[in-house]
Amino acid sequence: MKSYLSLAFRELKAQKITAALILAAVILSSLMTTAISTSLGILQEMRIEQAASLNGNRYGTFHQLTGEQAEKIVNDPRLYDVGVILTAGSVALADGSLSLFTREYAADALEAYPFINRLKEGRLPEAPMEIALPENSLPYFGREIHVGDTVTLSAEISLMDGSLPSYGYSADFKVCGILEANYVGYATGTLEAVLGQGSASALLPESYLLYSADFKVRDEGRFQALVDELAQSLGIPEAHIQYNWVLLDALGISYDKAGSSDTDTGFSFMTLAAGLIGLLVLLAAGLVIYNILKIAVTKRIREFGALRAIGSERGQIYRLVSLELLTLCGIGIPIGLCFGALSAKGILIAATGIFNPDLFLAESTAQLNDSIRQTTPGNVLPYFAGAAVTLLFAMLAAFPAARYASHVSPTLAMSGQKVTLKRRNRKVKPIRNFEAYYARLNLKRGRGRTLITILSLVMSITVFVALQSFSSLLDTSRDVQELNPGDYSVTNETTGMEPQSVEELRENEWVERLSTTKLSIYPPDEQGRFPLTLDFSLESWEAFHIAGIDEDSFTSFAPDLSEQDKSDLRSGSACIVKNPIPFTYEGETVAATTFQAGDTLSVNGHPLRVAAITQGAVSINNQGYLNGVQIIVSEKTYDLLTGTDRYSEIYPILRQDADSALFEDWLGEWCDQNPGSHWLSYRQTDAQLVESFGQIRMLCWGLILLIGLIGILNIINTVYSNIHTRISEIGIQRAIGMDTKSLYKTFLWEGAYYGLIASAAGGLLGYVCTVFINAATTDALTLVAPPVLSLAQAALVSVAACLLATVVPLRAIARLNIVRSIDAVE
Amino acid sequence: MEIQVKNISKIYGTKESRVIALDSASMTIKEGDFISIMGPSGSGKSTLLHIISGVDHPTSGMVLYGNTDIHKGSDKEMSAFRRQKIGFIFQQFHLLPVLTARENIIMPLLLDKQKVEEDYLQKLATLLGLENRLSHLPYELSGGQQQRVAIARALIARPDIIFADEPTGNLDSKSGGEVMKMLCQIRKQMNKTLVVITHDSRIAQMAEHRFTIIDGKLSEVNAS
Questions:
Q1: Order of strands across the sheet with A488-491?
Q2: One-character DSSP codes across A704-749
Q3: What is the rounded CA–CA span in Å between residue A623 and residue A782?
Q4: Please, are residues A272 and A286 in contact by the beta-carbon 8 Å criterion?
Q5: What is the spatial distance between Cα A694 and Cα A14, in angstroms, rounded to a whole number?
Q6: Domains, chain B, ranges and CATH?
Q7: Helices A447-473 and A266-299 sit at what angle, rounded to 10 degrees?
């Protein structure tokens, strides 16, 4: 023994349980910090991969470009990954429910769309009039299609600004490849076929040969400014700029036309929330270390007193206690880092292994894992950060205990005086349940320890509840999923569907609910007249639409409707208006009819107040919008204004336990009985998107598990210490007649109180966090429904953990000889 | 080195809970003296010892080691003073349970970053009959052996003065007698000043100067 500091190592060896508990806390906290920091990188990378795969690996697209404009974009040094696409037209499939877009992809443009370019068989087109068809388009050709076959496609192409009439053609294509099916495209009712270079120029008049250019910008901070500069210098109208908001949101790139609510707060908030959760975890772990060390020091207070008496300085005692913790950190942190790395890797492998790599732009899970591992920034940084943060928090946690030890008065420590207990409330009340009463008194005797334990548990519960809300923030797929109004769409563009048939569908045992749409479009006749009496005039090119929607769908078009507006819409005295899409022709903006909220209009003599203006329009069959004015009213008002009560499109949403195969059989028969009706399923698309969210939830559960362990560790420590520092007292209680059952009850009550108090406080704090997380998602601070399930789970697990932590050490003590228990005072 | 204790008072609490533990105690301890302080439980004898040895502060009065008032020093100076000038023997031994007897003995040297003089350590062990017990942990030793280890610990840094707070209080009469015998023998051989607190009159009578303390008031017996 060369230094007094060796005493630290001897103490660690001697106090195995204390050392083991602290070591476990250090391991868990370093594991947690490492797992969080590495998982954050992985999560963000997965989110980006997922976003890129859902809507193309591009920041935006300029549409309707001339060849000259496209070339300038390709050569612009501020842009990269520019992919030029030439649309040759769209082919209506499945009675028009699906549109098969035929496009030429110049150079590497197809690489941005891996779900399009993945071949099932054959090869990608190389020559004009060659085509690669998606597998899921094949059933709609009415015959079996194989590589090498020739297919005749009747296609149509329209310009976005409507400056030219749509152009239709029919042509034969040689099928050179079959592309793998991807159901993500179903969300927008589109399928993609790849044409060989030179096909479009062979098929289309020059005025229809307009290009689209996908792009990314090098300076992401100046994304919007660069887009604006390019649009201005090349004369690209705003309507021809498409922002890939799914990817932009995931990357945290700001842009003017935010397509998602969390654009500004999205990832920065996610980082903040993750940081907050990480901080809570560290605090919880810190409290564990503090609690254990404080108890350990208190138990050895006489030793420190003796050391002080024989001449040790305060600093020396401080160094002794700190060295004990440093030693444990030296052992625990590397172990924690290893486990953290393994858990992050495990979570990654588990998450990606069971999900479809298609969703992440990868051909296989291995490729996905490699891709994520390679692109996850700072491979060493998370480990360094994990170690540093754990060490910092551990030392901060050790400081009060070390200070307490170094400031102990030698006389007090050596005098053997017992801790004096204070009891404020000494009212004599009848004691109904002695064990519960005694447990409450015991909780008060070590207020600091009780508080710390409860606080640590509260933090674990808060994190548990908050993480559940937080995980939904990471779900990019949700935005795309929301595009689907139902599990299926059933459409009839010709005669419409009769109300009694729709009722029959609504009453089907598998159907949970239906969304419905009625739509009538009135293009002007040659004299610019409409078959309706309108008290306003429309421009010659404008069509007039009347859409009737179910009352539940009003707010999806106008979220800010007042109760009065909704009431007026239901009663038929108000409408929502979609104004025509503005466009320019030969450099000049074409005049368009424009309504504003508060205006009044009349249709067939029926006055309607404009309750709101909407940017979205009601359309059916995934078709585009025939430019003009659309008024959206209730279904009853629609019937009144149009004189027809037939439905154009309905969206059944099935019960969770529904047998979709049986329902689809039934729906097929239903369509046969309703001529002109046909259906399309979104269930596969939704299932695929839900699956992609599943892996994000799984990562969060990994974190929850670790946080729970830290909380439980603190309970075990406190309960263990409570029991072991009261062995003599327990002996005395038993000597005067307390039976084992009563002894158990007392300590179990203590455990239950810990769990119940922590559950209540943690639940409240978790709910507050949920409100704030919700506020960050919706940009409005509103009270949300309490996450009852999460709260109940947290409360149940907490109480169970407290009880379990009590039972185990208590069993050993209850078996101890009474005389030996009493003698254990010194 | 002469120690002068001048009008030491120690008062705990205020108002109704005010307790005078020591009331203007004064005494002089000369180099090589063997002093016993006797008194009933709660009389203030331990408080006096703690104040003289520098582990506690008086409410008023001073303790001079030579010309130095020990209570005017910083914590660091006080700690160094205790390490180098004073040896302490406690009633309950206060050995560190995780350290062997040898390690417990050398602890003051380790705290003072001094080298261990093996010859001196062996000499002390022989004097105290601990030659074969140095590698034992405290729980492996009898009460008397533990107290002998504590005596060796008190002597290892060659202090001028040894304070013993009821050194036999936790021992049976045989062990207690042996411990006191050894303590006296060592004091003589090494010419140390020894201050012993006790409520055992037989031990008190072994001292050259005997003091009693009752209700905080210190007085010398047969001072003449």
A1: A600-603, A606-613, A574-578, A628-634, A543-549, A511-522, A649-654, A488-491, A678-681
A2: HHHHHHHHHHHHHHHHHHHHHTTHHHHHHHHHTT--HHHHHHHHHH
A3: 37
A4: no
A5: 47
A6: 31-43+74-220 (3.40.50.300)
A7: 160
DSSP-based three-state secondary structure for B137: coil
Which distant-in-sequence residues (6+ apart) come within 8 Å of A454 by Cβ?
A754, A757, A758, A761
The answer to whether the beta carbons of residues A683 and A664 sit under 8 Å apart is no
Other CB atoms closer than 10 Å to residue A570's CB: what's the count? 16
Average pLDDT in chain A? 78
Residues A807 and A783: beta-carbon distance below 8 Å: no
CB contact under 8 A, A308 and B111: no
Helices (H), A431-476: 434-445, 447-473
Bridge-partner residues for A92, per DSSP?
Answer: A99
The answer to whether residue B145 scores a pLDDT higher than 60 is: yes
Per CB distance under 8 Å, which residues of B are interface residues toward A?
46-47, 50, 53, 55-56, 75-76, 79-84, 86, 88, 90, 92, 94-99, 103, 106-108, 110-112, 153-154, 157
Q: Which two tokens stand for residue B178?
A: 């042996």
As a whole number of angstroms, the distance between CA A518 and CA A625 comes to: 15
Tell me the average pLDDT across A672-683: 78
The pair of three-digit structure tokens given for residue A51, joined into one six-digit string: 């976003």
Distance CA A168, CA A170 (A): 7
SS3 label, residue B93: coil
Between residues A318 and A114, the one the model is more confident about: A318
Neighboring chain B residues of A824 at a CB cutoff of 8 Å: none
Nearest CA to A543 out of A588, A578, A499, A495 is that of: A578
Sign, CA dihedral A191-A194-A199-A201, equals positive
Rounded to a whole number of angstroms, the distance from the CA of B210 to the nearest CA of chain A is: 24
Using the CB atoms, write b or e for B24-39: b if 16+ within 10 Å: ebebebeeebbbbbbb
**pLDDT tens digits for A627-647?**
889 999 999 999 988 888 889
Please give the sequence-ordered ranges of beta strands (E in DSSP) within B46-171, or none if there are none.
60-65, 68-69, 86-89, 161-165
d(CA A689, CA A692): 5
Match 């007085």 to its residue by tokens.
Answer: B219
Cα first-last separation, chain B: 23
Domain boundaries, given as residue ranges, for chain A: 6-49+266-478+689-823, 57-243, 488-681
SS (H, E, C) A324-374: HHHHHHHHHHHHHHHHHHHHHHHHHHHHHHCCCHHHHCCCCHHHHHHHHHH
Question: Please, are residues A59 and A247 in contact by the beta-carbon 8 Å criterion?
Answer: yes
Q: What SS3 class is residue B192?
A: coil
> Which of A305, A310, A409 is opposite residue B107, by nearest beta carbon?
A310
Nearest chain B residue to A3 by CA: give it. Answer: B110
pLDDT digits (tens, 9 = 90+) for A27-74: 877 877 777 677 666 666 666 776 776 677 888 899 888 888 888 988
Q: How far apart are CA A293 and CA A296, in angstroms?
A: 5
pTM (whole model) above 0.90 = no
Number of Cβ pairs < 8 A linking chain A and chain B: 89
Write out chain A residues lying below 8 Å of B76, CB-based.
313-315
Q: Which long-range contacts (CB under 8 A, 24 or more apart) does A685-691 make?
A: A685/A183, A685/A184, A685/A186, A685/A187, A685/A484, A686/A481, A686/A484, A686/A487, A688/A183, A688/A184, A688/A356, A688/A359, A689/A184, A689/A187, A689/A477, A689/A478, A689/A480, A689/A481, A690/A477, A690/A481, A691/A355, A691/A356, A691/A359
Contact B55 A411 (CB under 8 A): yes
Whole-angstrom distance, CA of residue A603 vs CA of residue A612: 17
Nearest by CB to B88, from A3, A7, A309: name it.
A309
Report the Cα A432 to chain-centroid distance in Å. 50
